[in-house]
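ENTRY TYPE: paired fold submission
RECORD: A
CONTENT: sequence, then structure tokens
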Amino acid sequence: MKEKPDILVVDDDMAHRTMLKALLGRWNYDITEADDGSTAIEKVKERSFDLILMDIRMVKVSGIEALDKIKAYNPSIPIIIMTAYSSLETAIETLKKGAYDYLTKPLDFDKLKITIYRAMEHIRLKEENQMLRETLGRQFDRQHIIGQSPAMAKLLETVAQVAPSEATVMIRGESGTGKELIAGAIHFNSPRKDGPFVKINCAAITETLLESEMFGHEKGA
């Protein structure tokens, strides 16, 4: 994320936009303004924003309608909805449509600051997680496992066969022979690649606990 994140403020109340621009500027954000939902949609298509702060009731295109179209175009962008007409039904509707959060006017500035920070942090962690997954995926890609021998070729062929399956796989070998690399290759070439790749030091777990963790147990047994 950039050093000064870009926030798009969408509100047909010019005085409120001006106030938010000054406030968010003091919090070290770059601000772009839009006076209605249709303008906001066009601006999102023209450039990227780190967050959108949008009023729900506007004359031309409402915040609800703009929320739908912006999320269809860019699902990852966090959108915080503002409204002076608070209702539980409206809040639930905006959250179901993908809004990050919902704030009522007049805005509580402390709550606004915390909500923006949390939204930015949420996106940052998602981006870092995605980058880490891509890095691990490349690291454990079968094409990056070095070996030209017939035995290695057969091993990689086995990896390709078992990775898409639900089979339990036991990998055996001496220390330093690449068991973890093969385990990673199976995981990151499987339908479970978006889930965690959990490594456990079995030597640090007692035999009875390891057996229970791996194969389960019945209470009282």
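RECORD: B
CONTENT: sequence, then structure tokens
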Amino acid sequence: MEEKLFTIGQAAEYLGVSLNTLRRWDENGKLTAIKKDGGTHRYYREKDLEIFASDLMKFASEWIEDGVEFPGTFYCATSSIFNARLIKMEYALMQKSGFEKLYSLIILITGEIGDNSFAHNLGKWPDTAGIFFGYDLEKRIIVLADRGLGILETLRQVRPQLPSHVAAVKAAFTEFISGRAPEKRGNGLKLVREVVTDQPIDLFYTSGDAEVRMKGPDKAFRVMRGQRLVRGCLAKIEF
């Protein structure tokens, strides 16, 4: 059976990027095109595009660290776009068997994390406004990220005495802090912690050099100091 090939225009539409971005990725080896019979036209295997677009953590990490381009289908410039994509993901989850009791909680914590990024960076984005929001329901993974102020700088506006990223992230997940912009859905990251603790959902969350890892049967909430300094926030939800 002959494999399906996409033209460069079709591949650009599939990934949500420009033709020039695809040409640049081909030239630097990030996403290599096929040129048939020694010609100059670029073609892409459907499977290569699927694999490329599925590496969510890599795209999100490279974007928040170095501003590296990623498929535009994962970019939510505004909270309205984010919520529209969240509704689309909710509908997709509702169609999958085995998620009848869990899908609403997955949507809830995804919404809390995404809304948290928009609410606490409103009018204060250091450079690129908006968030990365990607998911692969077959692999049961959701990734969100932003290039915002980060938890420590945000909380220091009302708690200037906070000494570190670890202390700030711990406070964000465990305390009600007056003076912050209101979370739209519930209690922000505090609600996320409560849901993940009680449900078969794993969470990785990092901001600055602070990391939260809630995984497996031991869901004890801990904030540890990581090995790298992350700007903004990065979250991975697995279920």
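NOTES ON RECORD B: Confidence is low (pLDDT under 50) at residues 181-186. Strands lie at 5-7, 43-45, 75-76, 131-136, 141-146, 202-214, 223-238.
STATUS: closed
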